[in-house]
Design a protein that fits this description.
Length: 487
């Protein structure tokens, strides 16, 4: 793994293709004619070229086949700590052996290896060699190898990742000249996707138009790439992503989830929220489910545009249709509703999410609503929601819970605060020192000294009182509060 990581991280300098070895050298397995060790950086220093001769002699027969060479490259050389860097040199050396001929298996292996180890120049050289030396299954050049197109697709994607768009286009042109008939739409898609990721939107449009002139029918992936490219670039070329969507349906391509998600994202980025919501509704009408990412994107777009009430309406509509994505907690929307004091709408939404999922929508979401209800003076509603969370074995965090206990004690309801604390503890809540102190102080302030002392004893059992001195100080404080109340 360390060797593979080194191959992936670092790029080697291309070594010029040496002349093929003479037949006599091939017969006695002379080392490949390499002037120096490859410059590809590895965790270990590559062995000297002379060490390759013994390795080949030990693992290859004089009359080796393409399957023998593939086994050597894949199973032996690839895992050798000091000879792995010679993979391309062994491939080149085999070209000069009179009794040997590369086929699509060795071509595909070396092309993929060069692609994943970030050697684009060598990859381009191998592709050109593959065109001039067809695979044996191609019938001596009469037909193209069935694996030719998949090899080129992988290579084109790698060249785009290496930021070599010109080489990728040249490789695609070679593919067009070499394949029987016309390349598949998937080959155009690979090139378009790579160019789109590089931000070359004009080239993407050119490739799309070339598909039409080549009479290759675009598929749903083609349109998804085009729409995504237009959404990123802002359009141009006489198109926009809405027109592309219409053209997609006119050509009989059914949009999928990726299409809708891309469209919705494009509309929201341009502030066209109504159209984004319309696309989401059409998505549901066609039987597609809204993904959690799309749902969050819609709600975030409405909230950031200040249309919080409409976002709430959308959530309730999705709840009624049973289309709200699983795992959606609507935290941002609940916080926005609480900020504008639409607490009833926020509570209705949390209740709907709870009913649909059969569990609380999220501890943070519920805690935000509890805190908003408490701070607005609706303590009874906050207590009801907290009790419901406790029953569902999802108690709130200590900060939210302690704030609610403080509100109860401040309203002369310390006994209710103690009952809530005990219920929460049974439901899995982990009280902290402040939890006990708030309830004990509240009970003592109402003249309930014995109950307050019982809370201090529970605090002692929980390990929050380190020594007898701290215990006595707490008890003295309770006595003073009780006397103050009595006085």
């Amino acid at each position: 793994m360390a060797l593979r990581r080194s191959l992936l991280k670092l790029r080697r300098r291309s070594v010029p293709l040496p002349p093929p070895p003479p037949a006599a050298m091939a017969e006695d397995f002379a080392a490949p004619p390499v002037a120096a060790a490859p410059s590809l950086a590895l965790s270990l220093t590559p062995a000297k070229p002379e060490a390759l001769s013994g390795f080949l002699r030990a693992h290859l027969r004089p009359d080796f086949s393409s399957s023998d060479l593939l086994h050597l490259l894949r199973r032996k050389l690839r895992h050798h700590p000091r000879l792995a860097a010679y993979d391309l040199h062994v491939f080149r050396w085999a070209v000069g052996v009179d009794s040997f001929r590369h086929d699509h298996s060795t071509f595909e292996w070396i092309a993929r290896t060069l692609a994943v180890t970030d050697r684009p120049d060598d990859l381009r050289e191998v592709l050109r060699f593959m065109i001039s030396h067809p695979c044996p299954c191609a019938g001596d050049g009469i037909f193209s190898c069935p694996r030719l197109e998949p090899i080129f697709r992988f290579a084109i994607a790698a060249l785009c990742r290496a930021r070599r768009p010109d080489q990728a286009e040249a490789a695609f042109a070679d593919l067009q000249r070499s394949v029987d008939g016309k390349p598949a739409a998937a080959s155009y898609n690979v090139l378009m996707s790579g160019l789109s990721k590089l931000g070359n939107h004009e080239k993407v449009i050119q490739i799309y138009r070339r598909m039409g002139s080549d009479r290759v029918n675009p598929d749903v992936v083609t349109f998804n790439i085009m729409i995504h490219s237009f959404c990123k670039s802002g359009g141009g070329g006489g198109f926009d992503f809405v027109a592309l969507f219409r053209e997609m349906k006119a050509k009989g391509c059914s949009p999928n989830v990726v299409t809708f998600n891309t469209l919705i994202g494009g509309f929201l980025r341009r502030g066209r929220i109504e159209e984004g919501i319309a696309v989401a509704r059409e998505m549901l009408d066609l039987g597609h489910a809204i993904s959690p990412a799309t749902g969050e994107m819609l709600l975030r777009g409405l909230c950031r545009a200040g249309r919080v009430s409409e976002a709430g309406d959308l959530v309730m509509e999705l709840l009624r249709r049973g289309a709200l994505p699983e795992g959606t907690d609507c935290l941002e929307l609940v916080e926005e509703l609480c900020a504008v004091r639409e607490l009833d709408r926020a509570a209705e939404m949390v209740d709907g999410l709870w009913r649909v999922a059969g569990r609380p929508p999220g501890a943070v979401t519920c805690a935000a609503l509890v805190e908003a209800l408490r701070s607005s003076g609706r303590v009874e509603a906050a207590v009801g929601l907290t009790e419901r969370m406790i029953e569902a074995a999802a108690p709130p965090d200590a900060v939210t819970f302690n704030g609610l206990l403080r509100a109860l004690c401040g309203g002369g309801r310390a006994a209710d605060a103690e009952r809530l604390r005990m219920a929460a503890t049974r439901g899995g809540f982990q009280p902290d020192e402040s939890t006990f102190e708030i309830v004990a102080a509240g009970l003592a302030g109402e003249g309930r000294r014995k109950e307050a002392e019982a809370v201090v004893e529970a605090m002692l059992d929980a390990g929050f009182i380190p020594n007898i001195r701290a215990y006595n100080r707490l008890m003295d404080g309770l006595t003073r509060k009780s006397l103050t109340k009595g006085g």
